[in-house]
């Protein structure tokens, strides 16, 4: 697997992330109290992260976007709860990790790149994909509802099996994590390196 690496976001331990997100502006505890281990995402680096995936086998992303049909799946190094699934170690074929500041100077962390959808039995390889997020859905309560990215106020994630592509971005500013472009695909929602996936 090839990794493109920019700035490394570090946390001393996952328990520290859960208890007190490093450098997080404002009171995130209220947001994170809505979340449970099976609807939390985070992005620390290309090896330690959690994403949302369909809960059931061979489910299109769009069909999973209903209460109870989504679940957190983590990288082998990022998994920390029995409520979470584990992504195969070779789920990404190429992945770029990047941190920085967005349009209004607020922090973000993201993963963009190519996936091997056939390695995860939750996915259908011919599925055009869809979006999960913390601030969209009914009443802006997220999809899955109550979902959060640890240490950030917002996130947006797209999984596009038929394009062998996925992306996730955690943001302090909602403007850097738009939820209104879910049909446009990863490159339109999260600018980054996609290694000519497909």
From TrEMBL:
<protein>
    <recommendedName>
        <fullName>Allergen protein</fullName>
    </recommendedName>
</protein>
<feature type="signal peptide">
    <location>
        <begin position="1"/>
        <end position="19"/>
    </location>
</feature>
<keyword id="KW-0732">Signal</keyword>
């Amino acid at each position: 697997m090839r990794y493109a690496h920019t700035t490394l976001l570090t946390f001393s331990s996952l328990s520290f992330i859960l208890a007190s997100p490093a450098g997080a502006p404002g009171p995130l505890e209220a947001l994170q109290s809505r979340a449970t281990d099976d609807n939390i995402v985070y992005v620390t680096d290309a090896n330690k992260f959690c994403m949302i995936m369909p809960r059931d086998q061979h489910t299109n992303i769009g069909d999973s976007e209903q209460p109870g049909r989504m679940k957190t799946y983590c990288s082998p190094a990022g998994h920390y709860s029995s409520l979470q699934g584990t992504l195969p170690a070779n789920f990404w074929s190429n992945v770029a990790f990047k941190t920085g500041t967005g349009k209004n100077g607020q922090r973000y962390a993201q993963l963009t790149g190519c996936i091997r959808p056939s390695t995860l039995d939750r996915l259908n390889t011919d599925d055009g994909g869809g979006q999960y997020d913390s601030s969209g859905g009914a009443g802006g309560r997220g999809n899955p509802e109550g979902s959060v990215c640890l240490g950030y106020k917002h996130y947006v994630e797209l999984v596009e099996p038929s394009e062998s592509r996925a992306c996730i971005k955690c943001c302090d500013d909602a403007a850097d994590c738009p939820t209104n472009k879910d049909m446009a695909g990863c490159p339109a929602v999260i600018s980054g390196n996609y290694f000519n996936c497909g």
